[in-house]
Amino acid sequence: MTDSHCHIAGPEFVDDLDAVIARAQTAGVTSALVILAAEDEPEIRQAGEVASRWSGVRFSIGVHPHAAGKFSADPAAAATQVAAAIDAQPLTRGLGEIGLDYHYDFSPRDIQQLVFRRQIALARERRLPIVIHTREAEDDTFRILEEERAAEVPVVLHCFTGTREMARRALDAGFYISLAGIVTFPRAGDLRDVARMVPIDRLLVETDSPFLAPVPFRGKRNEPANVSRVAEVVAEARGTTHAEVEQATDTNFARVFAP
Question: Per residue in 145-180, pLDDT tens?
Fold first, then answer.
């Protein structure tokens, strides 16, 4: 099984990385897409440690909207830094997570948008799939994706928490939808409705580790082993088996990220 989005090169996993990987493998998780922040030098370095210990990992690299403000003086420099990080990491298979976050507004919105556009252009140039983070910015996100012709490469809306209408908008654009531990939360009935409506060939599952641990692990650090729990709840919502969700999401991951 594949965890299509995790952050195990972050500081939360430095002390027990081997144990985290062992638990994932024991749970049947054979591969994972590890997200790296291009401007985070310790995380970029730690990626080498992760790769040396788990042959099933691949990477996606980008500048998150929270960090876009670091490039206020020169938004184009964000894409330049991402390109350099991609060149330095041969296991890179995606660009992201990138996008817009208007919930926290840690970076000015106009700068977020400029940095987002530059990175979409880079993804198209490199023919890399795009991993999207969008929060309270649906219209601007979809508008920019359309204007920048993002659909020329695969696009994944990671940790999807939107409405059925937003999901339909994404599917109509040809995008993939990835569900994380939130789908297991008791009050996430609407998200389980989304899990039912997404065609099986457009579905991915993830942990977003160390964040958003699924029930019954809420309040604890999340890790890739828990992606099986996400798949279990998605299967229950769809009225199918864990094995079918596992097989389909693994196939979809391979189609998108060519690991």
Answer: 999 999 999 999 999 999 999 999 999 999 999 999
Q: Residue 26 corresponds to which tokens in the numbers above?
A: 């024991």
Which residue has tokens 């998780």?
29
- Does residue 26 contact residue 87 with C-beta atoms inside 8 Å? no
Residue in this structure with the two tokens 């039912």, named with its chain if needed:
196
Measured distance CA(36)–CA(20) in Å, rounded: 18
The CA-to-CA distance between both ends of the chain, in Å, stands at 13
Determine if the pTM surpasses 0.70. Answer: yes
Query: Edge to edge, what strands does the sheet with 130-135 contain?
Result: 2-6, 31-37, 57-62, 92-101, 130-135, 155-157, 176-179, 203-205
State whether the Cα torsion 123-127-131-134 is positive or negative: positive
Q: Is 101 left (phi over 0), alpha (psi -120 to 50) or beta?
A: beta
Rounded CA separation 191/36 (Å): 27
Give me the domains of the chain, ranges plus CATH numbers: 2-257 (3.20.20.140)
**Is residue 162 within 8 Å of 132, Cβ to Cβ?**
no
* pLDDT at site 259: 82
pLDDT single digits (tens) 76-127: 999 999 999 999 999 999 999 999 999 999 999 999 999 999 999 999 999 9
